[in-house]
User: What shape does this take?
Amino acid sequence: MVNQKVAQNTTTYIMTPGGDIRVQKLPILSLLVVLVSCRPAQTAKQKDAIALNELSSYGDLLQNPRVNSTQTIANDMQPPHEGAPHGVPRHYNWAFGPRVGMGNNPGKFAAMTAWGQVYVAATGNAATNTRIQIRDIKSYVLSKRDNKWHLLQSSKQVDGNAYREDFAGDISIPANVRREQDGSISVKVDKGYNYHFWCACSKATIDGDNIKGVFTTVQARLVVDNPQKPDDRAQARYLLSMGGDYWLNLTAKWDNGKTNADIGIGKFKYVKNQWQAFNMTTLSPTAIRRHPPPIQ
Assistant: This one.
């Protein structure tokens, strides 16, 4: 595969022959972490760089049994993706890194839902006896009025379908889903279709004038499909990203983007054998430090 370059903001990314996405040159912001303390005036980007550094330095020093952390949440909105999802056109504005969509401004929309998506990596996947187990999807809104996070959705299970990787025509087929003993589900994914999932609960009503931040999260890991066959999880190359949508109302159906719009799309990260958290938030690293989202 020929290396592909895509410019996003001030940073250039390279898709390597191995299908991973790499930063070509060091962003200036990383230097600001060291130098900004000497400068009296700080821009918002400089403050975010400092916040990311402080979250990394102090937020996770204590050994915490929780799967998620404030540092993970902040990192999950920093480009680039860990790898490129197979079949996603390069001109899609989320093909190479996470980004905020409508953010904290839902406009005409009066409801929301958390969602995620699982893809085979662009280089393919050699594993044939591996599933992706998904659990504990949640959505929260940070209130402008009380500066507190409010839980809107929570479910052990997720629902979903296998959609065309480019979502063209909203075409989908039933996914290969298995119910797990803890009440969660696992799924098998192959090239051509992703697994697009959402909360196994109703959409949540929102107050569009009272949104200071949005946070969606889910946990996932690799599990063996058939225990009577060899464990090939070491060969698995699956990517998962978390997101969220605003909707016109609680009962609205998809209508070519007229009835919904995305809030944001988080970083695609490789699913591993251990439980990991996958997040999307509309908050900057500075805002996350001021208003840490609920974690588990």
Observations:
- Residues 189 and 195 are 7 Å apart (CA to CA).
- The first strand starts at residue 4 and ends at 8.
